Amino acid sequence: MPKTLSDIAHAVLLDGAELARTGRTRTQYYERTLERKPSSIATATKGFGMSRSNDPVRALVTGDNGEGPALALGPSAGIVLGVSVASASIRAAAVDANGFTYHARSREPAKTLAATQTELFNLIKAITTDVLESAMQDEQLLVQGRLPFLGIAVAWPTPLDREKTPQGVFTHPSWTANKRGLHLRLAKHLGIDGKHSTASRPRQWCHAIPNAAATAMAAAFDYTRSEEYQQKELAKLLLVVRLSGRVSAATISVEPKKEANHARISGWMISRLTGGHKNLAGEFGHTPVNASTLKALKDRRTRSCPDFVPAACPCDPEQLSSDHLEVFAGGEGVGSTIPSRR
User: Fold this and answer.
1) Would residue 279 be called left, alpha or beta, if left means φ above 0 and alpha means ψ between -120 and 50 degrees?
2) What is the DSSP-derived secondary structure letter of residue 75?
3) H/E element holding 119?
4) How would you label 260-288 residue by residue, b for 16+ Cβ within 10 Å and e otherwise?
5) Where in the chain is the domain with CATH 3.30.420.40?
């Protein structure tokens, strides 16, 4: 019985790395997994009743015997704009359904935490426009001459509650004056809020996620493609701690491969982030540090280690005597204790 497009997509996600390890050829993959006997990609897509230019999901075997990647989803599965906003930089790239990135851009240093909402949104708009304009000239990403753009996903340097409202890191009043989620605010600013979507112009989505949660999802994505994961029969809990401008953590449960409706489902597709009651689990950067603990650490430091220089916490930039963990373990705090090379 012919496999559905959903079955094919799951097979591609599951078998990409496996195909490279086993050394199976293109023909073997199509015969054993997709139950077809194509002599080329063109005949394969035709056999599935697809067109190479407009099929919803196109499976492409791009290499044999380690000429990698062995297997990938085609561009018609969609392109997403991925953006990472850190405390002092902004990065963006076009991302396909395999997690491959294209036309990456960066702005560094960039004033993000002290910027007004409009200033930061304009910085995001500038860098994403640069990425999209470059991607729209890339023939390998186009489908029928158009970029199959699905939307934008932004990793933010701030805790977000369940409504995607920023919690306490952005310091300008413009961030708290608006109670809507960051994904809705940015979508409106970029003009992709979906109000004017049609059949020929489908709705484009905007997502918001904390940096630590995005890092946890990336760790889970890599883990589901490891040899260790192939042998797992139970879920695995991954805890990711992010130390950059901020201090935060995220937990994700990576499920094992499962069978459903005679098709295997990738554990990546059903992994679950743990956010807690208010979606703020792991945001421990603003936990107060006990004064006696700080004194004990100071007394035990070696002579080569300079004294700590107080840094402002992003949640209160005017207060240099904050006892928040982020002041000591965040980017500025760690940097202030590194000895000079002079």
Assistant:
1) left
2) G
3) helix 117-135
4) eeebbbbbbeebebebeeebbbbbebbee
5) 77-212
Cis, bond preceding 109 (omega within 30 deg of 0): yes
Tokens of 229: 């994961």
CA atoms in the 13 A half-sphere facing the CB of 335: 10
Convert 169-207 to b/e letters by CB count within 10 Å (16 or more is b): bbbeeebeeeeebbbbbbbebbebbeeeeeeeeeebebb
Q: Return d(Cα 273, Cα 319) in angstroms, integer.
A: 33
How many other CB atoms are there within 10 angstroms of residue 307's CB atom? 8
Q: How far is CA 217 from CA 122, 169, 251, 269, 312, in A?
A: 27, 22, 9, 11, 30
- Which pLDDT tens digits describe the chain residue by residue (342 residues)? 345 555 555 566 555 555 555 556 656 665 666 565 544 445 555 554 445 444 444 555 554 444 445 566 777 778 999 999 988 899 999 998 878 899 999 998 878 888 899 999 999 999 999 999 999 999 888 877 888 898 999 999 988 999 999 987 787 888 988 889 999 999 999 988 666 555 555 567 899 999 999 999 999 988 887 888 888 888 999 999 988 778 899 999 998 887 655 556 777 778 899 888 888 888 888 888 888 888 887 888 887 877 777 677 777 767 666 788 888 887 666 655 544 443
Q: Cβ(209)–Cβ(145) under 8 Å?
A: no
CB atoms within 10 A of CB 317: 13
Q: At the fourth CATH level, which superfamily is domain 77-212?
A: ATPase, nucleotide binding domain (3.30.420.40)
Place of tokens 């599951």: 14
* Contacts of 226 by beta carbon, 8 Å cutoff, 6+ apart: none
Q: CA–CA separation, 171 vs 143, rounded Å?
A: 42
